[in-house]
Structure formats: structure tokens, C-alpha cells
Write a structure and sequence with these properties.
single chain, 106 residues, alpha+beta, two-stranded antiparallel ribbon, 19% strand, globular
Length: 106
């Protein structure tokens, strides 16, 4: 499960930097899979697209999407990400800096 606050103090990171950053926080932190981030979305809300009463603080609700560890199998230089302001799930080139939300667990 995602921790309650994304890493808002950290600057946006490329995909490789995001993976390394989460691992550097120690076990059991990691970059989440896209299905984990998308499971948090509530499409009946915007800005952020999270359910009413959600426990998360500091979620960027506009601008850049959060990285997932999930590589785009059809174009491996890209990885999947989630925009929490509107619930869009898309892909970006791994060289593009985006926010990071490290999660705990295997």
C-alpha cells in the first residue's frame, strides 16, 4: 500500500533516478507498479482524482505525473505513469523527470 505522503520534498527524477531513489530509502521501499497507483484513483473526482476522505497528503494534483516502475512493453524507453489531477494513466520517456511516490512492500 502507498504511504500516506508522496515524496514532495524530492525534486522530479528520471525513471532510473526514481527507481534508485526508492531503493536508497531501504527495504521495503520501491517504486510502485502502474496498477498500484491506478488503484488509488477515483474518476468521480478531479484535482485530485482520489476518493473523498482519502488519507494522502501532499499529492501533486496538477502538472506532472507520478512514475511507476512499469515499463511500456511496446516501447521500452517509456514507462507508465499516473496523473493524479485527472486520473490519466499514460506513458513518458524514461529520461523525463517526474515526481516520485515510493511505496512499501514486496
Amino acid at each position: 500500500m502507498a504511504k500516506k505522503e508522496p515524496d514532495t520534498a524530492a525534486t522530479a527524477k528520471t525513471y532510473d533516478e526514481a527507481v534508485a531513489y526508492c531503493l536508497s530509502k531501504g527495504n521495503p521501499y520501491r517504486l510502485p507498479e502502474v496498477k498500484e497507483l491506478a488503484s488509488l484513483l477515483d474518476y468521480s473526482h478531479l484535482n485530485p482524482a482520489l476518493p473523498s476522505g482519502h488519507p494522502f497528503t501532499g499529492v501533486q494534483s496538477g502538472g506532472l505525473p507520478y512514475w511507476s516502475v512499469t515499463t511500456n512493453v511496446f516501447n521500452p524507453p517509456d514507462a507508465w505513469n499516473v496523473y493524479f489531477w485527472n486520473g490519466l494513466v499514460g506513458v513518458n520517456n524514461k529520461s523525463v523527470p517526474n515526481p516520485v511516490w515510493c511505496v512499501r512492500g514486496a
